[in-house]
Design a protein that fits this description.
By secondary structure, the chain is mainly beta. It has helices at residues 3-20, 228-237, and strands at residues 36-38, 48-52, 65-68, 71-74, 87-91, 97-106, 121-128, 144-149, 161-163, 167-171, 174-176, 180-181, 194-201, 205-210, 213-223, 245-250, 255-264. It has a single domain (51-264), classed as Exo-inulinase, domain 1 (Jelly Rolls), CATH 2.60.120.560.
Length: 267
């Protein structure tokens, strides 16, 4: 056999070996600004950590936060009575410029012992403090609360309101120190799914959007400094809040989330 014949036979063989060789797996690229990221994977609570009043960070008392039927549920089936076990389920990352979107609904009856104001009441906390710095018996993180409320079946009860545990905001160039401010949303009775979107641009602007309609906006979230805890936060990180933790609340009424997703903004 000639050298030319050997070369002609060797070329296809080399090609076959190259095609059959294992291809190294490529690492999945991290999410970029402009890409929606699912913070709830529909299977488990990976990336989330509970902090419930009276219990150390990471202790999920009575399995309050759980995943069932592909839903992230705040459930009280393990409670005999609610005695102030206010809870927050914290996402792992600190965030500043983003759009956060949740789809939620209230279900069932309020747990016995829950306060009247907590009927069909939950929330998404944003620009919050680091949960590692919370006191064992602290009820709520210093944060901005996008308050989620369900209707009672009659009358008006807006959702995506603003509440400010340990914080203040500015609306129309005026410092707002009231604990809660109502939005202009519709009332959502029953167990229907509601979509709330939170658009945060650091401290410059925060908007609450319900079913595509902007219902509240404000700026310059800041620690109030009217108690020892928030004074300490001001000393350690400054008064104006540029970003922070996000968390989902448990306040004694069962609530379900079927979507929690994040769009990072390139700012």
């Amino acid at each position: 056999m000639t050298k030319l014949s050997c070369s002609l036979l060797a070329a296809p063989l080399a090609l076959a070996v190259w095609l059959l060789a294992p291809v190294p797996a490529r690492a999945e690229a991290p999410p970029r600004p402009g890409q929606w990221v699912q913070l709830f994977n529909g299977t488990n609570l990976d990336g989330w950590t509970p902090k419930i009043t009276g219990y150390p960070l990471g202790t999920n008392f009575a399995n309050t936060f759980r995943v069932e039927e592909g839903l992230l549920k705040v459930s009280y089936s393990g409670y005999t009575n609610f005695t102030g076990q206010f809870g927050h389920l914290f996402w792992k990352d600190k965030l500043s410029n983003y759009v956060l979107r949740v789809e939620y609904r209230f279900v069932g009856q309020q747990t016995p012992g829950g306060p009247g104001w907590a009927f069909r009441n939950s929330g998404v906390m944003i620009h919050g403090e680091d949960p590692r710095g919370m006191d064992l018996n602290q009820d709520f993180p210093a944060s901005i609360e996008v308050q989620l409320l369900g209707g009672s079946g009659e009358g008006k009860r807006t959702t995506a309101n603003l509440c400010t545990p340990g914080t203040d905001v500015v609306m129309g160039e005026k410092l707002v120190t009231a604990h809660c401010t109502d939005s202009t949303s519709k009332t959502y009775h029953g167990d229907q799914w509601v979509t709330v979107q939170i658009e945060a641009h650091g401290s410059k602007l925060i908007k609450h959007v319900v079913e595509g309609e902007t219902v509240l906006s404000y700026s310059l979230p800041q620690f109030e400094g009217r108690d020892a805890h928030t004074k300490q936060l001001i000393q350690s990180q400054g008064k104006i809040i540029e970003g922070g933790s996000i968390s989902l609340q448990s306040e004694s009424h069962p609530v379900e989330f079927r979507k929690v997703e994040l769009l990072k903004l390139d700012e």
